[in-house]
Structure formats: structure tokens, C-alpha cells
Write a structure and sequence with these properties.
The complex is a heterodimer of chains A (175) and B (305). Chain A has two domains: 1-96, no CATH class; 108-175, Winged helix-like DNA-binding domain superfamily/Winged helix DNA-binding domain (Arc Repressor Mutant, subunit A). Chain A contains nine helices and no strands. Chain A has helices spanning 6-10, 12-33, 37-52, 62-91, 101-106, 109-120, 123-133, 138-145, 149-171. In chain A, helix 3 (37-52) crosses helix 4 and helix 6 packs across helix 9. The longest helix of chain A is centred in the middle third of the chain and has 30 residues, at 62-91. The termini of chain A are far apart. Chain B is an alpha+beta fold and 305 residues long. Chain B has one domain. Chain B is built from eight helices and 15 strands. Chain B has helices at 5-15, 25-37, 44-59, 109-116, 148-157, 208-218, 223-235, 294-302, and strands at 73-78, 81-84, 94-99, 103-106, 133-137, 140-145, 173-178, 181-185, 191-195, 198-203, 239-242, 249-256, 259-267, 273-281, 286-291. In chain B, strands 4-5-8-9-15-14-13-12 form an eight-stranded antiparallel beta sheet, with helices on one face. A five-stranded antiparallel beta sheet of chain B has the order 1-10-7-6-3, covered by helices on one side. In chain B, strand 13 (259-267) and strand 14 form a beta hairpin. The N and C termini of chain B lie far apart (55 Å). In chain B, 39% of the residues are buried. The chains are: A mainly alpha (175), B alpha+beta (305). Chains A and B meet through helix 2, helix 3, helix 4, helix 5 and helix 6 of A and helix 1, helix 2, helix 3, strand 8 and strand 14 of B.
């Protein structure tokens, strides 16, 4: 990676402001999907770096862009983790697995199920559910996902239906 | 939040994902600042390869009576796979990993062959009925440096203070070349990973068997077990899958048409098998085939050349 350009440097203060304002929430949005705090925080930083390097994302839509990107980064990472986890079987079979008995036996099974279902949903459905579950209003979701506010309700309803169908298909009514 | 029952049902499940930690703003800013100056690649995957190399290096030895080539570095190939119930990620070695690129997608098998430098194999016709997503990873080079003090510290922690680490080991470098690896992911969850055998090079004359024994001791293996393991691998160099003792797995030796293989069943928290991997190798290829079903994993592994 090369040194920041002059334009980038001139935006550094803006980056710091927006980072301070949104880093915590961005990290927690990602943390809903990515169990590992270190990785979630690392991805959150990556989101801000992407924003910084993308002038088109600056301005009034910055906040929406950040949360949309955070949700996508998290979901992409979730899929990568699945592939990587399988891949690691050849190279480090359980390196990524939890090692303490507490982790081995008490990892929240429900979290695993929910993440598994999110992974199986379409990206749009997963993004909607992720942002909604993090307390975003319909208006905020509309801004983040660049959709009309009047459609957000029905979009969320479809996403919830898709989630419920996939969950029940995988796990039945056991929980 | 939504008020109807089904919406609440979904919300309740998603609420379980609420993180129980708070982001560290200071750490985040520090990370951001460092990346603004120099962007680092994610080390997540590299760490895996690093650990892999540790497995390769540590557990490989060769008979001391073997005639060694007259060269500065002795190179040998690992094309055999075994399992040990140890956590080799704890080995006290300094590692540096370099790669030309972690992952590349390939549109088809021809593109995969160009990127990987070898022809990837597909299972025989009729075994899997969909086209895979193809990814090429690596090659990855791992350089490990021995620091005597680190090993001595690990030995003390492991209660193996009877061992003397030769001072001439200080700074010795061990190199491993892994991959490129071709990964085929099928929509039904079957995954096939294949690569050429791993190449290891060490300084000419380096006592790998002794080093293997010391390394085993440094992670807490008993004297006689460490010695037996080192001797065993001296006689039959192999690349090992290390499965820590607390890993919830069943391991079976199985027979494929092409020879023996290991079948590894992963057990979930409820005691059910949720993933089955078959690991085997030939003289020119190492394979891992995994899926959610034992028969499917076996059938697919058997359908590879």
C-alpha cells in the first residue's frame, strides 16, 4: 500500500471525526455476525479505510454507506469463515475451534444456528435483518440500503419470513 | 421492533447475537492509524498456514543413516498425512510467512490449472452433479527461525528442564513451500482441497530427529512419547494434522481404492456428527474431501485419481 495521497491527507480529519462517531456501533454491527471481537474490530477499521478511500461515499450519505458496508463486510466474512473453516481441516484441522471446555461445550448453540441461517439468506435479507436487529429505524435502514422508506417494512417482512423458513427447515421447532 | 408474533420470534433469535463486549475505540484508532500508513493483509489465513508449517517442520525427520545430498540445503517432500492429538500451534518457533496472494477465484478448471501450475482433478463423472466454485490459494512460503532461548523457556514451562538445547541451533532456518492449493466448493456443501506434496528444506546436516524430539517436549509431550514420535517420523516423514486433545472428533482409518485414508468426524456440542472429512494422499497429490455426510465424503474421495 502506498502512502496516502494529498487528497486523502486532507480528509484525515474528517475520517477521525466520523471514526469517533461511528466506530463503536459499526464494530458492534459486525460483532453480531463475527463472534471474534478482534476480527470484528479489524473489519470495522477496514470499513472506515474503504470509506476514506472512496470519495463518492463521502458527504451526506456517509453514514448509510458505512453501515451498509459494515453489514456486507460482516456477512462476507461469515461466508469466508465457513469456507475457510472447511479448508482448514486440511491444514489445521481445528485451529480455529474454541479450545476451552467452556467454549467447547457452552458456545451458544442458538448463535451458531442464527449465524448459519443468516449465511444461507440472500445478502439483502441478511443485511435488513442485521440492521433491524441492531435497532435501526425504517428510515435509517432505507438510507443505509438505498431503498425507499415506504418499502422497508415489506422488505423486512420478507426477510423475516425467509429467516423463519430457513431456520425451521434447518432446525425445526426445537428451540 | 415488530409486534407480531413471527416478527418477534425472528427478533428474539437475532437478539442472541448481541455482542457481550465493547469496542475499544483507542485500539481501533491505533489500528486505523497504522493502516493509514501501511495497509497490512489480514493474517487470519496466514496464521493457519504458519501453524501448518510448524506441523511439517517439527514432525519431519529422516534417518540419520540416509545418504544426504551434497548441498547446503537438504530438501524433501511430504506426501503422507498422519494425525496426532497434540496442539502444535504452541511450538516456540519464530515464523515468517510470505505468499503471492491468498485467494484467487478461477472461472473454470483450465483457469485453475493456469493459476495453480498443476492440473486439478475432479471426481469421476456421476459422483457430484453440480459445478464447483473454484479458488486457488498460495503458494505460501514459510520460514521458521529457531531461537534457543524461546525453546528453553518453553521446555521449562513444560517441565522438561532435563533437556539441553544445542547453542548451535540458534538462528537455524527451516523453510516450507506449501501449495498452490485448489479448493473446489460445491453447492451441496462438498469441499475438495488438493495440492502437490509439501516441500521442506533444512540446512544440510541439521539433526531433525533430535529437533523433533525437543519440539515435542516443549509442548508438554513426555520424554518417551516424544522420543517415540520423533523416531517414528524419522523413519516415515509425514505431514501431520494436529488435533488438540480437547477437539471433539472421531478418527478412523479407512480404505479407499487408492490406498489408506483418514476419516475425521467432527462432533458438535450435542454429540452429533456434523462434518466428515477424508484426508488422503498419493505420490503426487494431497487431498481433503469433506461434507456433511460420511458416505458422500467417502464416495467423493474414492472418485479422485
Amino acid at each position: 500500500m502506498s502512502e496516502p495521497t494529498e487528497t486523502e491527507v486532507s480528509n484525515a480529519e474528517g475520517l477521525d471525526v466520523i471514526f469517533r462517531a461511528h466506530y463503536g456501533r459499526i464494530a458492534r454491527v459486525i460483532g453480531r455476525v463475527i463472534q471474534d471481537q478482534d476480527r470484528a474490530e479489524e473489519l470495522a477499521v477496514e470499513v472506515f479505510l474503504k470509506w476514506w478511500r472512496n470519495p463518492q461515499a463521502h458527504g451526506e450519505h456517509a453514514e448509510g454507506w458505512l453501515y451498509r458496508t459494515a453489514a456486507r463486510e460482516a456477512l462476507d466474512e461469515l461466508r469466508r469463515q465457513t469456507r475457510r473453516c472447511r479448508f482448514e481441516r486440511l491444514f489445521s484441522f481445528v485451529r480455529d475451534s474454541p479450545k476451552t471446555p467452556e467454549h467447547l461445550y457452552a458456545v451458544n448453540a442458538e448463535q451458531l444456528r442464527v449465524r448459519s441461517v443468516l449465511r444461507a439468506l440472500s445478502r439483502r435479507h441478511a443485511e435488513l435483518l442485521l440492521l433491524r436487529s441492531h435497532g435501526f429505524s425504517y428510515q435509517q435502514i432505507a438510507v443505509c440500503l438505498a431503498v425507499s422508506p415506504e418499502y422497508v417494512g415489506s422488505l423486512i417482512k420478507r426477510a423475516q419470513d425467509a429467516f423463519r423458513r430457513e431456520y425451521l427447515k434447518r432446525y425445526g421447532n426445537e428451540s | 421492533m415488530e409486534t407480531n408474533h413471527e416478527a418477534q420470534w425472528v427478533a428474539d433469535r437475532l437478539a442472541t447475537l448481541e455482542p457481550h463486549w465493547s469496542p475499544d475505540l483507542a485500539l481501533g484508532r491505533s489500528l486505523l492509524a497504522s493502516k493509514l500508513v501501511k495497509r497490512h493483509h489480514s493474517l487470519t489465513w496466514i496464521a493457519v498456514a504458519t501453524a501448518t508449517a510448524a506441523v511439517c517442520i517439527t514432525l519431519v525427520a529422516f534417518p540419520t543413516t540416509r545418504a544426504l545430498a551434497r548441498q547446503l540445503c537438504y530438501r524433501f517432500i511430504l506426501n503422507r498425512v498422519e494425525v496426532v492429538r497434540l496442539d502444535l500451534s504452541r511450538l516456540p518457533l519464530q515464523m515468517q510467512v510470505t505468499t503471492d496472494g491468498l485467494e484467487q477465484r478461477a472461472q473454470d478448471m483450465e483457469a485453475a490449472e493456469r493459476k495453480a501450475g498443476f492440473k486439478p482433478y475432479l471426481p469421476s463423472v456421476g459422483v457430484l452433479h453440480t459445478n464447483p466454485e473454484i479458488t486457488i490459494t498460495g503458494p505460501i512460503s514459510v520460514e521458521q527461525t529457531i531461537h534457543v532461548r524461546d525453546i528453553e523457556s518453553a521446555l521449562v514451562k513444560a517441565g522438561a528442564s532435563d533437556i539441553q538445547v544445542p547453542s548451535e541451533w540458534e538462528g537455524v532456518q527451516l523453510r516450507t513451500q506449501i501449495g498452490p492449493m485448489v479448493e473446489l466448493n460445491y453447492p451441496d456443501g462438498v469441499q475438495i482441497v488438493q495440492m502437490r506434496p509439501i516441500e521442506v528444506s533444512v540446512p544440510f546436516g541439521f539433526p531433525l530427529e533430535q529437533f523433533a524430539e525437543v519440539s515435542f517436549r516443549s509442548i508438554g509431550v513426555s520424554l518417551w512419547e516424544a522420543r517415540a514420535l520423533a523416531q517414528r517420523f524419522a523413519a516415515h516423514p509425514a505431514w501431520l494434522l494436529d488435533l488438540p486433545p480437547d477437539a471433539l472428533v472421531n478418527i478412523h482409518e479407512v480404505s479407499l481404492q487408492g490406498g489408506p485414508a483418514m476419516l475425521i468426524e467432527e462432533i458438535d456440542g450435542r454429540g452429533a456428527v456434523h462434518r466428515v472429512s477424508v484426508v488422503h494422499s498419493t505420490s503426487e497429490r494431497m487431498y481433503s474431501v469433506s461434507s456433511g455426510d460420511r458416505e458422500l465424503s467417502m464416495k467423493t474421495a474414492d472418485a479422485l485419481p
